[in-house]
Amino acid sequence: MITLNTPISDDDIKLLRSGEKVLLSGTMYTARDQAHLRLINEKELPFELNGSVIYYVGPTPKREGFSIGASGPTSSYRMDKLAVPLMERGLKIMIGKGDRSEEFRHEMIKNNSCYLIATGGTGALLSSKITSSELILYEDLGAEAVYKLEVKDFPCFVAYDIYGKNIFKDN
Fold first, then answer.
1. Would the N or C end of the chain have less CB density within 10 A of its end CB?
2. CA distance 63 to 1
3. Which CATH class name applies to 2-163?
4. Cα–Cα distances in angstroms (integers) from residue 77 to residues 15, 101, 103, 115, in the given order
5. In whole angstroms, what is the distance from residue 43 CA to residue 9 CA?
6. pLDDT tens, residue by residue, 96-150
7. Reduced to 3 states, what is the DSSP secondary structure of residue 88?
8. CA atoms within 13 A on the CB side of 122
């Protein structure tokens, strides 16, 4: 098991191997396809993309006693082409669920980035690892808006590493 703290460095990415469990702590951002369409056209963002983590999630409304509602991962393939411009600007880790395209995997390796998966169907458990949530962009997108999350020991697995390994085929 690997423990990572944000921001993510190139050295952190080199440590990750497909199939390994990761506990992630620090800041990460939410974004799905509609937010990605806008993010890739923004010249300046209210957060630093270099070394950042984006979690593909559309959280449910906040529950009493929690900083966010259920926060399970969404299917990631819709972000394949949209993630490339963000990786080129320094995005290091994307978290979602499901397999992705060969083109995405090639671009991920080229940009020294990594794709992690969180277990689908565990949104309530994952939300307990989110210690704070703040809406920072695109409120009009509702659950697809961009949120800044603080997480502690957020559990996920390395799906694709920079060495070409793929949890869906190799493990």
1. N
2. 30
3. alpha beta
4. 24, 7, 11, 11
5. 23
6. 999 999 999 999 999 999 999 998 777 777 888 889 999 999 999 988 899 999 9
7. helix
8. 13
Determine if the pTM surpasses 0.90. yes
Q: Which helix (H) or strand (E) holds 5?
A: strand 2-5
In this structure, what token pair is assigned to residue 64? 């009493």
In sequence order, the β-bridge partners of residue 151 are 26, 130
> Residue 79: left if φ>0, alpha if ψ -120 to 50, beta else—which one?
alpha
Compute the distance between CA of residue 69 and CA of residue 83 in angstroms, rounded to an integer.
25
* Strand extents, DSSP E, 7-166: 21-30, 53-55, 93-96, 114-117, 130-137, 146-160
Of the residues 36, 97, 100, 129, which is catalytic? 36
Sort strands 146-160 and 114-117 into parallel, antiparallel or unpaired.
antiparallel
CA 166 to chain centre: 17
Q: For this structure, is 36 an active site residue? A: yes
**Beta bridge partners of residue 25, listed in sequence order:** 5
**Residue 97: CA atoms inside 13 Å, Cβ hemisphere, count?**
14
